[in-house]
Structure formats: structure tokens, C-alpha cells
Specification:
The chain is an alpha/beta fold. It has 8 helices and 9 strands. The chain is globular and about 65 Å long.
Length: about 240
């Protein structure tokens, strides 16, 4: 499979930050696909809507796990199931990141789905959206996150290495730019060395929304998260915690 980046924001980002134009996307995709996956299988499931409660046209998909196989295939299958029955999809994310190759596949699936229904992405307080999760989050027309959510950017690395690959990192940055992340924000991170050496650039959702003007989060979730009241009679089979 060959990827051709003709998106105007990605092209402008290349020119502005002066990255080399040549990309070896196919070879990198092959290298990443050959990497064994040791992570726990991702969990996908349907639940009641977060917003518009009781609206049968809105479906919630909660995702916890890496941006890696079989996420894209699962989302594609979900898209087939809800096609013609729902008008909105809420993708609730909690992810430690993954591969640029699979993030690209997920973005393509969501782009196709977005032509049919509205997509809303969300990262709740206390949850994370790291690295390859960010371009996936960007596919929502409405993108909500908690101020106490956790975000991280870093250079893309080859398998079993923490040293960023220049070509793979360029691919990742162009994926972010083409997804709508602010070019000025990405260039500022690049100038700070966030993509050139081992390590990660960490931010809270509050920082990302209020201080960085990154164009990532469109709306902050409230800090107070009420829970259903637990009151007597209690289940006698439950032991005290």
C-alpha cells in the first residue's frame, strides 16, 4: 500500500519547518508491521451515549489500548454495523500510543466514516492520548478532553529503539499537520527538540487547550465528574474495600 500526501496543511508544514521531502513510507510500514505485538488486545464496545442521552441515533465506542492492530479493522466493522442506523459516533479514547502505520490506517477508516456520520472524540479526565493517539483524536469534528487528561508528543522510532527516525518522524508530523494540528505549534515543539531525541514532551489537557493554541482540543470537559449515589441496602455479598 502506498501513501501519497497531497494535503495542503501537510505540504505547508514541510516547507515551513524545512523537513526533507523524500519519504520512505512503504518500507517503514513494512518494518512496523513486522514488529510483534505483545500488548493486551484492545477492548472495543458499545454503550449508552455520552451526550444526547436516549438518542438512538448516537452510539458510543470506548477504546482502551494501543493504536495498533486490530483497531482499524474493528472500527471498520463497527462502521458497517452502524451505517444507516446512526447519525453520530462518539469515540472515547484512552491510549498509550502505537505505530504511525496503524494510526494512518485508523485515520483513513475514520475519514471514510466521517463522510456518513458525525464523529465526536473524547479523552476524559485521568485518561491519556499519547503519540499516535493524537491524529486519531483529531478525526472528531467535536473534540472534547479533560483538563486533567494526559498528552505526549515524541519522535517516531524504529522497532526496539528509543532514538527517533527522521523519516518516520516526518511521516508522523505530516499526519498530525494533515489532521489539523496547528503548524505553528508543531514547529515550536520541533524547535524545542521534542522530536529529535529520546524522550517525550508531556502536557495536560488544560495546557494544550489554554496555553498552546494547538488546535487539538475544541472543548474542555468540566473538572467535576459526578457519580451515581451508593446508598443502603448494600449487597451483603460485597466485602468492605
Amino acid at each position: 500500500m502506498a501513501f501519497r500526501w497531497t494535503n495542503e496543511p501537510a505540504r505547508r508544514f514541510r516547507d515551513r519547518c524545512r523537513w526533507p521531502i523524500a519519504l520512505l513510507l512503504v518500507s517503514f510500514l513494512t518494518d512496523r508491521a513486522a514488529q510483534p505485538v505483545h500488548a493486551e488486545p484492545p477492548r472495543l464496545g458499545f454503550s449508552e451515549p455520552i451526550s444526547d442521552a436516549g438518542d438512538p441515533r448516537t452510539v458510543l465506542v470506548r477504546y482502551q489500548g494501543p493504536i495498533d492492530h486490530p483497531m482499524a479493522g474493528n472500527l471498520e466493522e463497527i462502521g458497517k454495523q452502524i451505517s444507516g442506523q446512526h447519525t453520530a459516533l462518539i469515540l472515547d479514547l484512552d491510549s498509550q500510543g502505537g505505530t504511525v502505520a496503524h494510526a494512518t490506517l485508523v485515520v483513513e477508516v475514520l475519514n471514510q466514516l466521517r463522510g456518513k456520520i458525525t464523529i465526536h472524540t473524547i479523552v476524559r479526565n485521568g485518561r491519556k492520548c499519547l503519540s499516535a493517539c493524537i491524529p486519531v483524536f483529531m478525526q472528531g469534528q467535536r473534540r472534547q478532553a479533560g483538563g486533567a487528561s494526559v498528552w505526549m508528543f515524541h519522535g517516531a522510532c524504529a522497532p526496539y529503539s528509543n532514538v527517533p527516525s527522521e523519516k518516520a518522524t516526518q511521516w508522523y508530523l505530516e499526519l498530525l499537520a494533515s489532521s489539523g494540528v496547528s503548524e505553528a505549534f508543531l514547529c515550536a515543539l520541533k524547535a524545542k527538540g521534542a522530536f529529535s531525541g529520546p524522550g517525550g514532551f508531556w502536557m495536560s489537557g488544560y495546557e494544550l487547550f489554554h496555553e498552546q493554541e494547538a488546535g487539538i482540543i475544541t472543548e474542555l470537559l468540566p473538572s467535576w465528574q459526578p457519580e451515581p449515589e451508593i446508598s443502603p441496602p448494600f449487597d451483603r455479598q460485597l466485602r468492605p474495600r
